[in-house]
Design brief:
Length: 149
């Protein structure tokens, strides 16, 4: 059990620090925030000074608030897609549909999915090449610099 917890904490730290490069004042949206990596990510993003919006089931609100989430959204109420202006979006659940969620990010925002559906990846690459820019910000190690379409 302790190895699993350590792996989740290290993964969250790697995503928030190295990949997303979370800075004070940024807005971070975490889907599936009440489990493993998501719960650690809430704490780490908050420790970096970010404003954290956590998305989880209805019973997890007090837990996520105690971890440091500024806002808690119940995934069963309303549409998460209505969220806007986030610098970082961490998808800890496999149900993240890029075509519906991308509007939640700022144009240079970072999208970090833990699970990626094949159709979403192909849509993302095709869309970024057609529009001449990469929608997922620094996803895959600053994709804009590595793969300018």
């Amino acid at each position: 059990m302790s190895f699993s917890l350590s792996a989740m904490a290290l993964s969250s730290n790697l995503i928030m620090r190295a990949m997303a490069q979370v800075q004070p004042g940024q807005c971070v949206l975490i889907l599936g925030a009440s489990a493993g990596i998501g719960a650690y990510a809430v704490q780490i993003a908050r420790a970096f000074g970010a404003r954290v919006t956590a998305v989880a089931g209805p019973v997890h609100g007090p837990f996520l608030t105690a971890l440091g989430a500024d806002r808690v959204l119940e995934y069963q109420r309303g549409r998460i897609e209505a969220e806007r202006g986030h610098d970082v979006l961490l998808g800890c659940i496999g149900a993240t549909d890029w075509r519906h969620i991308r509007a939640s990010l700022k144009p240079d925002g970072v999208f970090s999915p833990l699970n990626f559906k094949g159709k979403d990846l192909s849509h993302l690459v095709r869309k970024s090449c057609l529009e001449g820019r990469v929608w997922f910000g620094r996803f895959l190690a600053t994709a804009q610099r590595i793969w300018p379409c």
